[in-house]
Amino acid sequence: MPEPFEGKHYTTWALIHGTPLESAQNILLEGFIRPANWAYNKDLSKSDVPFGAFYLGREINRENSIPDWASRELMDSSQKRGKGQQKVLIGALYRRADNHISYKAGGNETAQVAVAKRGIATTSEKYTIAHSNHVGLHFFGLEMAKLAHG
Amino acid sequence: MSSGRRSVSRDFDREDRARFHSYGHYSRPAEPRDPPRWQEKLSAYEDYSHRESQHQDSSQWQDRLGCLEQMERSTNERQFIMASSTTFLFSRQVLPSTNFPGPFPPLIPPGGAPSAAPQLDSRPLTAFSTSHQHYQKTKKRQPRSDTGYQSRGSSSIPAGHIQISLKDDHKKEWIKWAKFGLNHKHRMKAASELSEEEKPKPCFTIDHDRFHKAYSAIRSIDRRVPLETAKLAAHLISGSRLIDDIDLSKAYLMELRVTNMLALVFPLPSAGSHCLNPSKGNTTPHGP
After folding, report:
1. pLDDT for A99-109, tens place per residue?
2. A150 lies in a domain?
3. Which of A69, A94, B184, B282 suits a disulfide with A13, CB 3.0-4.6 Å?
4. Which domain holds residue A37?
5. Would you call A12 an interface residue with chain B, using a CB distance cutoff of 8 Å?
6. What global pTM score does this model have?
7. Contacts of B6 (CB under 8 A, 6+ apart)
């Protein structure tokens, strides 16, 4: 992942993105996660402004890899969220100079607009939206039930 | 006292209706005329004035009598107005009102006489006219003011002034943001925007031996890895063209204690995980 602003202060986030199998295959082929799908409307007041995809995120220290505790915590909590209850979980790192902005209210559209300027935003629904240009892939995982195997 | 007032009001109505019939605006034969109503009305008023004279000044009642005579003279005008289907405004609904702008003093208390007096006919007077035209309400919408407050009149803006508007135009604001987002140089296309040529091309077939080698490697990570999951992982790695790049020996099984699940984790090769493809529009991934 490139060093933002020549190694000056930046924030690092560990992210987990849940996705179906076909989308996971495309993500692994391209090497990055595209923004969330959206529908264009000629009436722009009804159009979205997509800049980033939806993740579960934790801010971590300045590291080049996702620490074990962060990946465990994120994958563990992913089952509690709609976005995490998918076949494939993709772990990614986010880095950028600006701090995140945390929204306690408002819709995802407002957060997407903030992502255009700040790079990363947390929404009132506990999701994290990160700018797709600043996210690099680190691992992918498949979850399975533990009880079935004793 | 109120009964006297009521009788006056009823006489007005009956007289008006009788006169209206006498002018031939009605196809039925004219009803027999009542005795001269003006006399009765005057006498009734005189009785009324006698009763009221104990409490009020006599000069005041003379003024009222003068007004009543004026009212008689104006009856012809009223009949003409009735014939032209506008008597609705001058009928019993308007006369008792205290807001009557004419020179006549209010003879009937507001709201008392019309409801208490016996109604001869509930139809409006204009219903007897052949030239009666149904009154149609013309709804004219009031233009919404820019202020958002309907109570503020926009017609009272003096020359050289502008109207203060507190209207929140969220729609325009969002259109501005949408244009900003769509024209942003760092915006990456979503998967739904990609054309067929731009979409990634997965691998649809793989050599049997290579697949089984990968499958066996995944199975050897942990005995708790189920067959279906190992097979699915092998298919995903093969279809993503990562079968030669990924180091399956680094894969591991992670216990997720809170949800009581297991996660089979495959670290991606460092070169691929940091790949930011310039052809997709992210030529400056360092931010603004």
Report:
1. 788 887 777 77
2. no
3. A94
4. 4-144
5. no
6. 0.58
7. B108, B112, B113, B116, B117
